[in-house]
Amino acid sequence: MRERLLPLSDPNLGHHPTVNPTTTHHDGSLLDSYSETICDVAERASASVVKIDVEHKGRQGGSGSGFVFTPDGLVLTNSHVVRGASKIFASLPDGQRFVADIVGEDEASDIGVIRIDAPGVHALKLGDSKQLRVGQIAVAIGNPFGFQCSVTAGVVSALGRSLRSDSGRLIDDVIQTDAALNPGNSGGPLVNSRAEVIGVNTATIQPAQGICFAIAINTAMFVAGKLLKDGYIRRSYIGVEAQTARVLRAIVRFHDLAADNGALVLSAEENGPAQRAGLRPGDVIVALDGKPVDGVDSLHRLLTDDVAERTISATIIRGSEKITLPVRAIERK
Predict the structure, then answer these.
(1) What is the pLDDT of residue 5?
(2) What would the pLDDT profile of 8-40 be if each residue is shown by its tens digit?
(3) In whole angstroms, how far apart are CA 127 and each of 110, 157, 202, 204?
(4) How many CB atoms neighbour CB 2 within 10 A?
(5) What does the pLDDT read at residue 38?
(6) How far apart are CA 126 and CA 198, in angstroms?
């Protein structure tokens, strides 16, 4: 049978039941709704975002971003933006420029707090990063390459990431987003569709595209609270240089260890807590105060202010023996 061709004048042409010419209006309304959300967030949040410029011993340093989080002029930013600065300037979008005082900064979490004398300045509302869901809107505001109050939008790509800080410690509970970040965005806010801060923008992976990170606001505010109280984060150390290493499977089974890895001691600080306790190079720390140690990162996580200036137990593997030694953890400022 020959295939029948419809004449151009056929009245059914263009009216196939699966095609609805009005659907483009629906898509357009969705786009408008998304655009309206981003515009609203940008308008509500941008006024509280500051451009930070620093000097190092009279020389022009780098620049970054921050945001006002209290009405009396406290500004949250990244530690690496303000670390070592001899002078800090903060500029608001309305043109006001202030000399800022540093309240405190913590290299291990990459969070810093500065203060500007701008009473009554609008403070951003803080969200709850524990309520985040993958896929929700995320808007980053900052000053990439000095272009003040630039806005980029994307989604929360993943939650619960870990990011290594300049100090070597891991920052936990990091938000991954595809909202574009560039040098100068560091310290700026990542906000949700209600213009609430959900994270502090901190890093990108070069040369990857669309893989950017923000420190969860709950973590940032915990650190900020400690900085406001003491000016630093109280942590502890036991005086070892270590690396993550595997423990022989037979030893893991024999001693019923919680993990296959531990923290291999490479050296112990001369007359430091570990050396005084009897730890030696070659020992593998597998637990601290009864909590499993599966590498250097978990060792760092356990050396908190809770154990500072306390004697704790270090469980080690030496050869094939399992030994527990009392170690006094020392406060590190």
Answers:
(1) 41
(2) 444 444 444 444 544 445 566 766 888 999 999
(3) 19, 18, 18, 22
(4) 4
(5) 94
(6) 7
Provide the pLDDT for residue 23: 47
Please say whether the beta carbons of 77 and 64 come within 8 A.
yes
Both tokens of 214, joined, read 């923000």
> β-strands 261-268, 212-216: how paired?
unpaired
- Positions of E strands within the chain: 49-56, 59-68, 74-77, 87-91, 97-106, 111-115, 125-126, 137-142, 150-164, 170-177, 189-191, 196-204, 212-216, 235-237, 240-246, 261-268, 284-288, 291-292, 310-318, 321-332
Q: Which long-range contacts (CB under 8 A, 24 or more apart) does 11-18 make?
A: none
Distance CA 32, CA 21 (A): 19
Catalogue the active-site residues: 80, 110, 186
Residue type, 18: T
Q: What one-character-per-residue DSSP string does 230-253 give? A: HSS--EEE--EEEEEEE--HHHHH
**Gap between the Cα atoms of 67 and 306, Å rounded:** 30
Low-confidence ranges of the chain (pLDDT < 50): 1-19, 21-24
pLDDT of residue 158: 95
For residues 12-29, b (16+ Cβ closer than 10 Å) or e, as one string? eeeeeeeeeeeeeeeeee
**Do the Cβ atoms of 141 and 229 come closer than 8 Å?**
no
What per-residue confidence (pLDDT) applies to 51? 96
What pLDDT is attached to residue 157? 96
CB-CB contact of 173 with 188 (8 Å): no
Complete domains list, the chain, with CATH = 125-216 (2.40.10.10), 235-332 (2.30.42.10)
